[in-house]
UniProtKB/TrEMBL annotation:
Protein name, as recorded: AP-1 complex subunit gamma-1 isoform X2
Coiled-coil ranges (or none): none
Source organism of the structure: Paramuricea clavata (Red gorgonian)
Keyword Amino-acid biosynthesis attached: no
UniProt keyword list: Membrane, Protein transport, Transport
Main location: membrane
A GO cellular component entry from the record: endomembrane system
Amino acid sequence: MCELNPEIVAHFRRHVSTLVKTLKNLIMSGYSPEHDVSGISDPFLQIRVIRLLRILGRNDDEASDAMNDVLAQVATNTETSKNVGNAILYETVLAIMDIKSESGLRVLAVNILGRFLLNNDKNIRYIALNTLLKTVSADYQAVQRHRSTILDCLKDPDISIQRRAMELSFALVNSNNIRGMVKELLVFLNSVDPDLKSYITSNIFQVAEKHAPNKRWHIDIMMKVLTTAGNYVRDDTVPSLIHMVASSDSLQAYAVQQLFSAIQHDISQQSLVQVSAWCTGEYGELLFKDIDEEEPLNVTENEVVDILEGMLASNTLNQVSKQYALNALMKLTTRFTSSVDRIKTLINRFSNNMDMELQQRSVEYLTLFRSFDEMRVGLLERIPVMDTKSTTSTTIENGEILEVQREEQPVPEQKQSKPTESTTLLDLLGDTSSVGTPSTHTQAPNPVPVLQPAAPSTNGGDLLDLLGDLDMSTTTAGKCGALENN
């Protein structure tokens, strides 16, 4: 009645003292064969009374104070050897965590759940993990005391227990225990079901970003996850990892050498290949830099190009990974001056590729060599540190996995530039759809400013390829109309 109609809760609160006396008589009374179940007097009535006390004590200080003592008696006097006693204790724990109970009583409730985790019954262990997950925000420190037992549940063969233990483990990570917790979670990542690996990798990156003791440790954890489960890393995680390396000036050499060393042995992990290719193209010259306390990489320019060539020829890598590799090769033409001719040959192989994106990039890069080589060094210099964009991360609330959308910072509006001689040339060329430029319906997330030459170029087609997506429909229509009138 109280659950269906909250308005009558105030009426029943006057009878809290009577309910407390009834419950006390039940736990203190002797053997009653009519209502005894496994040595416990009328457990069904006890559970009903405790459940009603929980509803009546919710958000009420006076009612909660009146029932604190009797709930403590139930928690300490009920046997845990039988399922009947465990059912009463479970209902007692829910009541303690729901009412305005004392801190000591809450610790007692969490300790009961900790004992449940040691039970051989998988159902009881699952219930304990689920309840701890819902109450971890109420008494964080008390739950932390059972961290080792919770981590042991990760080794349970039952997938449901594994999942709840995993979620609870991530909820318990903080700046003080992150090293040990992430170490255990990485061990768990090696043996976990593939369906859970994407969730684990995303949350390891999330807690590492939030609680990492230092940047170098953060990079090491990133490397371990990428080499262990790189194919299960979410797509939106790759830009975050790239941003982390780009924003760590003092560790860029260490990061790029570690990443390149990893892909020397394995190029089957998609996310590892993408992050490594981007960093190799951006910071390729740092591969030859000596780092304190680290063995030199001892790699040559040709060996670096060989690895990227192997990526492009691989049958296991997807097209996105190959796009990263092709961009890295183009970047290296300004870092590895002795390998420019070889890189041009590699890029030229993709000018007729079946994949439209690879073909377009290859043709545009070759055009840059042929017609705008004097601008190549400036165009391919290091990219400044990017602003973090909106990303979706997973959080846990009351035992449920939720996706949280981080707010994206507003992008200032760009003023539209006035038509120049280059745009006039484009107007005269008419319809540009045959050139193979991207559709104007698809907007790039980060518009790149276009470098416009002072004088119009006679290479109209090449200029269009380099300028990419330009919406000239209005101006072109005006020109066509003028021609028809003439």
